[in-house]
């Protein structure tokens, strides 16, 4: 698979002499999602999402790589299709939109003996300074620099919606999850953290191929629901899936999400100032998009709603994990964070 000029280099670091991804196979076999760092293969967690676990494998060969594990595939065709989408999404962002993404690659292994489950590992250059990721930066610098950070993120996201506007007749549309934790600052000094208005950003959340050709998603939407308990999936699909997917194609909603996140980060007092930045930006640098100013009320409503859905969802997932591991003595595929303050 051709990805940003590192073809095969990353994969060679995890292959054994017979060309198998032995490290990943062992990882799958010994991974305890309750205690991911306690398995046979030494790993260090870098982060996690709803479906994914992001970590580095502590070995000489792999030390500068981040592995993102997605244990959600049922067949080779499905995972291969996802890898194609992933690589095309990375190419679109990096080459066509000029939104920089880390060089990346992908490898998959069977996750069980019966060969019914597949885990995909998206491999990326590791962001060398953890504090340079957005959700860390905002706790290290003051409001003036956070305002700058929001502005430069908005300028990056504009590239997506400009592309979408220009390509509406060609039938290709690109989506993006603009959350603060998906951006890293280049040329960042952890000992002297600053954001400059000409600072360059890297977008790291590239493992979900978010683009549509003639209305058809590159990503198989239903895969999004894999981390949900099976008893919830049909209802989520019926009522929420389309809405959640559409969210990433709507610039205004992506921006609301970006700002509402400051509630979760315990920095709600900054939201009014940040909204001023957003609304000024839309009124000066993005007039042709006719985006209605975002209000504080909308942000608060969105946050409350999002928080409620999330809490319900996490509780159902915990229940599902309990059933699987304690009652049925099966493996639970996902990492569930401890209750976090939101
Ligand atoms: N290349 C990387 N280097 C260092 N840390 C990373 C890297 N990629 C991801 N992380 C860490 O892992 C977190 C989650 O990664 P990412 O944003 O790609 O997943 P997500 O989309 O939020 O997860 P999901 O798709 O499961 O919801 C990031 O916010 C970051 O802290
Ligand atoms: Mg993310």
What can you see in these coordinates?
The chain is of the alpha+beta class and 342 residues long. Helices cover 41% and strands 14% of the residues. It is built from ten helices and ten strands. A five-stranded antiparallel beta sheet has the order 1-2-3-5-4, with helices on both faces. Strands 6-9-10 form a three-stranded antiparallel beta sheet. It has a two-stranded antiparallel ribbon with strand order 7-8. A hairpin with a 7-residue loop joins strand 2 and strand 3 (65-73). The longest helix is centred in the C-terminal third of the chain and has 32 residues, at 296-327. The chain is globular and about 55 Å long. The two termini are 39 Å apart. Magnesium ion (MG) is lined by residues 49, 179, 181-182, 205.
List its traits:
binds magnesium ion, 3-stranded antiparallel β-sheet, 10 strands, Phosphorylase Kinase, domain 1, binds adenosine-5'-triphosphate, 342 residues
């Amino acid at each position: 698979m051709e990805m940003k000029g590192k073809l095969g280099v990353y994969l060679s670091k995890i292959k054994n002499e017979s060309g198998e991804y032995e490290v990943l196979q062992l990882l799958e076999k010994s991974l305890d999602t309750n205690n991911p760092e306690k398995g046979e293969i030494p790993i260090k967690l870098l982060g996690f999402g709803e479906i994914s676990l992001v970590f580095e494998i502590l070995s000489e060969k792999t030390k500068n790589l981040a592995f993102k594990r997605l244990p959600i595939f049922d067949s080779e065709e499905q995972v291969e299709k996802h890898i194609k989408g992933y690589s095309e999404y990375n190419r679109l962002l990096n080459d066509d939109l000029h939104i920089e993404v880390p060089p990346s690659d992908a490898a998959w292994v069977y996750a069980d003996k019966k060969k019914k489950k597949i885990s995909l590992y998206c491999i990326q250059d590791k962001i060398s300074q953890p504090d340079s990721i957005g959700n860390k930066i905002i706790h290290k610098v003051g409001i003036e620099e956070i305002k700058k950070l929001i502005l430069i993120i908005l300028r990056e996201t504009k590239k997506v919606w400009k592309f979408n506007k220009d390509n509406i007749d060609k039938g290709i549309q690109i989506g993006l999850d603009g959350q603060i934790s998906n951006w890293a600052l280049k040329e960042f000094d952890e000992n002297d953290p600053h954001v400059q208005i000409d600072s360059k950003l890297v977008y790291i959340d590239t493992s979900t191929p978010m683009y549509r050709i003639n209305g058809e998603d590159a990503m198989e939407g239903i895969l999004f629901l894999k981390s949900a308990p099976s008893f919830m999936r049909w209802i989520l699909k019926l009522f929420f899936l389309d809405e959640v997917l559409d969210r990433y194609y709507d610039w205004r909603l992506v921006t609301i999400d970006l700002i509402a996140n400051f509630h979760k980060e315990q920095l709600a007092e900054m939201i009014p100032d940040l909204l001023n930045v957003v609304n000024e930006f839309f009124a000066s640098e993005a007039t042709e998009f006719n985006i209605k100013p975002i209000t504080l009320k909308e942000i608060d409503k969105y946050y409350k709603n999002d928080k409620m859905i999330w809490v319900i969802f996490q509780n159902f997932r915990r229940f599902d994990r309990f059933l699987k591991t304690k009652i049925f003595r099966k493996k639970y595929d996902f990492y569930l964070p401890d209750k976090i303050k939101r």
